[in-house]
């Protein structure tokens, strides 16, 4: 991820945050809020909920900053907090996140023609938003947050193989959605 | 095949971040954060935690402090209540023995022995004053009625005194006891007044008789 490069720059700011420096906290917030909000937005798929998650995550991050060991970059540490908070929010609103209903997958065609047209970012993004919660979360974590299936399995409390199969189903579903008339640009 | 989607997303990764949180959100986050910066410090009621740096620790400290204060308060109340109950139970057990009665009354109603002593001295005084009058000479048999009344007041007083050990409503009982003593003093006073008036009348009639006698002589 791009944010990894900030690691060294952040260390001083993080230290100031630990000692309660208000401006240092705002600095970190400015640096990460947009990226983290989009992470939250992709998982929750709801603006208000994504904001709640972001608020909760930042408050929790600042309060627990002393437990940040600089093993990973601050960005990925923060991202993990955001992702966990977002997943919790989605879980609260729907009991089951993963696995999805198997029959919905069985109905789908195995072959999806992919190379028909050029993709547009906006088209793909909106298609991801149309995915059901379980698919959207796995696909977003894999494609956009750069998580591997082991990490996704850990964060969602599922096995690595479940994450893999969920992802391939989600991917099929996504391409299907993109072929719907309103998505063909 | 798979790589095409992955590659597309990776190539356009930045473009996928299209949303931005409202600017007010930072204010909301600030409200949830314990403030340590000097410009905000004045707004927050703060206790000195020394060099404690972590935010959560301070909240924790406050919680613990509040809990301790609560526990101490409860403990003290219970302790004081327990201290009072065994004492009254003790006096109740020994209330039959009249000799030890007075100091224990002091434990329940500290003002009572003093009041009692005052009224008893008053009553004794009135009684001795009364006994100076020769009732037979004054032709009064009312004394018996008064003695009965006084005996009745005395017995109700003993009942009240016993209740004092058992009833939780000490103030009411002490009031009744004081009232009882007051009535006795008033009864004796009334009797004294009556006797004084009678004596006066008797003296006057005697004088009249004497003057009449001398004039007749």
TrEMBL record, chain A:
Molecular function per GO: DNA binding; sigma factor activity
UniProt cross-references to PROSITE patterns, sorted A to Z: SIGMA70_ECF
SUPFAM superfamilies on file: Sigma2 domain of RNA polymerase sigma factors, Sigma3 and sigma4 domains of RNA polymerase sigma factors
Keyword terms: DNA-binding, Sigma factor, Transcription, Transcription regulation
DNA-binding recorded as keyword: yes
Biological process according to GO: DNA-templated transcription initiation
Domain RNA polymerase sigma factor 70 region 4 type per the UniProt entry, residue ranges: 122-174
This protein's record includes keyword DNA repair: no
Domain RNA polymerase sigma-70 region: 28-94
Family, per entry: Belongs to the sigma-70 factor family. ECF subfamily.
Entry-linked NCBIfam families: sigma70-ECF
Protein name as catalogued: RNA polymerase sigma factor
Annotated source species: Pontibacter mucosus
TrEMBL record, chain B:
Key words of the record: Membrane, Transmembrane, Transmembrane helix
Top-rank taxon: Bacteria
Transmembrane segments: 60-81
Name of the protein in its database record: Anti-sigma factor
Organism: Pontibacter mucosus
């Amino acid at each position: 991820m791009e944010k990894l490069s900030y690691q060294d720059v952040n260390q001083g700011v993080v230290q100031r945050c630990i000692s309660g420096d208000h401006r240092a906290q705002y600095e970190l917030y400015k640096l990460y809020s947009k990226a983290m909000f989009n992470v939250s937005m992709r998982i929750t798929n709801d603006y208000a909920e994504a904001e709640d998650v972001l608020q909760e995550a930042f408050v929790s991050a600042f309060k627990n900053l002393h437990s940040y060991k600089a093993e990973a970059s601050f960005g990925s540490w923060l991202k993990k907090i955001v992702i966990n908070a977002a997943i919790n929010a989605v879980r609260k609103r729907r009991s089951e996140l993963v696995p999805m209903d198997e029959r919905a997958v069985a109905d789908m065609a195995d072959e999806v023609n992919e190379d028909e047209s050029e993709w547009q970012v906006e088209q793909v993004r909106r298609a991801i938003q149309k995915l059901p919660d379980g698919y959207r979360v796995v696909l977003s974590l894999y494609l956009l947050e750069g998580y591997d299936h082991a990490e996704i399995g850990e964060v969602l409390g599922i096995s690595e193989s479940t994450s893999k199969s969920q992802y391939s189903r989600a991917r099929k579903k996504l391409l299907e959605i993109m072929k719907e008339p309103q998505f063909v640009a | 095949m798979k790589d095409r989607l992955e590659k597309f997303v990776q190539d356009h990764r930045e473009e996928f971040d299209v949303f931005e949180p409202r600017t007010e959100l930072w204010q909301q986050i600030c409200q949830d954060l314990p403030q340590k910066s000097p410009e905000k410090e004045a707004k927050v009621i703060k206790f000195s935690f020394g060099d404690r740096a972590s935010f959560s620790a301070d909240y924790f400290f406050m919680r613990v402090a509040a809990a301790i204060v609560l526990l101490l308060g409860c403990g003290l109340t219970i302790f004081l209540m327990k201290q009072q109950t065994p004492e009254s139970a003790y006096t109740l057990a020994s209330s039959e023995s009249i000799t030890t009665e007075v100091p224990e009354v002091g434990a329940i109603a500290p003002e009572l022995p003093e009041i009692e002593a005052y009224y008893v001295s008053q009553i004794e005084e009135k009684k001795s004053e009364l006994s100076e009058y020769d009732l037979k000479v004054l032709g009064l048999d009312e004394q018996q009625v008064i003695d009965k009344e006084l005996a009745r007041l005395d017995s109700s007083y003993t009942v009240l005194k016993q209740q004092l050990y058992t009833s939780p409503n000490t103030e009411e009982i002490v009031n009744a006891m004081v009232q009882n003593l007051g009535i006795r003093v008033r009864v004796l006073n009334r009797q004294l007044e009556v006797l004084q008036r009678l004596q006066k009348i008797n003296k006057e009639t005697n004088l009249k008789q004497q003057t009449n006698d001398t004039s007749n002589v």
